[in-house]
Amino acid sequence: MCAAPVLASTREELSKLLTDARRAGHRVGFVPTMGALHAGHASLMDAAREAVGDGPVVVSIFVNPLQFGAGEDLDRYPRTLEADLEVCAAHGVDIVFAPAVDEVYPGSTTGVVEPQVTVDPGPLAGILEGATRPGHFRGVLIVVAKLFGLVRPDVAVFGQKDYQQLALIRRMADDLCLGIDVVGAETVREDDDLALSSRNRYLEPEQREQAVALSRTLRRARADAIHGADSALAAARAELRASEGVDLDYLVITGTDLGPAPSTGEARILIAARVGTTRLIDNMPIHLGTPDRHTS
Predict the structure, then answer these.
(1) Catalytic, out of 38, 41, 91, 136
(2) Are strands 95-97 and 57-61 parallel, antiparallel or unpaired?
(3) Please, which residues bridge with residue 189 across strands?
């Protein structure tokens, strides 16, 4: 059993805990989360540990109000700190940073969170998830930039399930010259292939079975990718038409940078849909025009 991580709730506590590690020349690994941790998050912790060796691994647990739009689930988003600390302990996390809102956004004690200096995520934030959730990625990049400044990691690990988020954070780290290696870890899936997500807990048993249609649709597209993007999308849409209880938002094939899909080569297929009232996303790598090396 690994030792319990040290819990920090203020900037000062976090800074003191990291000072000795930096003086000793250790690399710092960081996994930002909103809590409600599951095996997918645990895989990010393991990847951070592999990247920094004996250096400290920091996990933040902070439900960021800036990335929730009107009518979204900020109030009902699960907050499970004690269980989260157990997950962190089991995966060798050294420090858990779990701040209050006014610690991350000073001056927000009235409940209004609106920092004066913000991050403009650019045009990539206006497509896919950004088209459905205006302002979402602005809120994500603001909090990630703040957490990067507080932790000052050498390596930060994010899941590929939120692929657009990963692409934007990489772009921010590069464009702002932050000197942080942003690592994308593969999506962890349940036994039936459903991508792990904190929102899966909102699904009723029947909806849980219906939700598997998302990954099934992506794999159907990959099987037809040898014939190109149009054929892959047609096969995926046929799969969706045969699936019940899935209200599609988008299904697209893009380049690996979320730009236009190439005629051949590596690309990405992304899907978003509602099952009941729960909005789910998923994505997979896809290889267009030749046999898909990802297919097992």
Answers:
(1) 41
(2) parallel
(3) 195
pLDDT tens digit sequence for 80-100: 999 999 999 999 999 999 999
Cα(291)–Cα(294) distance, integer angstroms = 9
Q: For residue range 230-258, what is the model confidence (pLDDT) as tens digits?
A: 999 999 999 999 999 999 999 999 999 99
- Where in the sequence is the domain holding 71, given as residue range(s)? 6-185
CB atoms within 10 A of CB 74: 14
Given 130, 160, 185, which residue is the final one in a domain? Answer: 185
Tell me, what DSSP letter sits at residue 221?
A: H
pTM: 0.92
Neighbours of 238 (CB within 10 A): 14
What is the tally of structural domains in the chain?
2
- Does residue 41 carry a catalytic annotation? yes
Q: Evaluate if residue 76 carries a pLDDT over 70.
A: yes
Assess whether 165 and 202 both reside in one domain.
Answer: no
CATH number, domain of 207, equals 3.30.1300.10
For 285, counting Cβ atoms within 10 Å of its Cβ (0-12 exposed, 13-18 middle, 19+ buried), the class is: middle
Tell how far CA 69 is from the center of its chain: 17
Considering the domain architecture, whether residues 243 and 112 belong to the same structural domain is answered as: no
